[in-house]
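Field reference: sequence -> structure
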Amino acid sequence: MYKNHQHSETMFAPPRIARVISTELLDNKDAKWINLVKITYEDENGDVRTWEAMRRPNRPKASAVDAIQIIGVLHKPTGPELLLEKQFRAPAGKIVIEFPAGLVDEGETAEEAALRELREETGYVGEVVPDRAGSRPILFSSPASSSSSTFLIHLKIDPDKEENRNPKPQLEDGEFIECFWVPLRNLYDQCRKLEAQGFAIDGKVGVFAEGLEMSKIWPA
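Structure field:
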């Protein structure tokens, strides 16, 4: 029995773990916000392969993520409502339904970036809701094609605050953003209606809506 046990350990050795060997820039002479890179890596069989991907060149050194996405919630007597945006996105060729979002600047925390972007894009002032687990998970937006990563920051928006009664966005030149509110309980249905009207649904918003819908179909 002892010999058979040793034999089985040899047959079922721990799998090899894939690893990145190097990352090099490809021709990006006209690129400002996104770089194309070639990644050389070793796969689980020990074979060396290459992969092309995108990488943001301006992630702050002290930040774990490139960007933040904002889950902005307003509490009303009729129930919580979610803050969303409509913004034309050239790669999609459509107006996209999105969460308020933005890049983390050098010298600021992700939470500070979320509060700043909320104020700039929507005019609202929010309050950060601490993560219940104590630290936020890093989410990769499109790991098959990009190293870009983000935090989802939950913000509570108080409708009684003076600044939130008549919010004034501080949009940059070339930014055209329309903000609107959707009852959380209706988010999935609203996304379906907006898509039918010709809007594109950002994947993060879509997955969030699907999760809410799934919790109704299969309640815990």
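Note: The radius of gyration is 22 Å.
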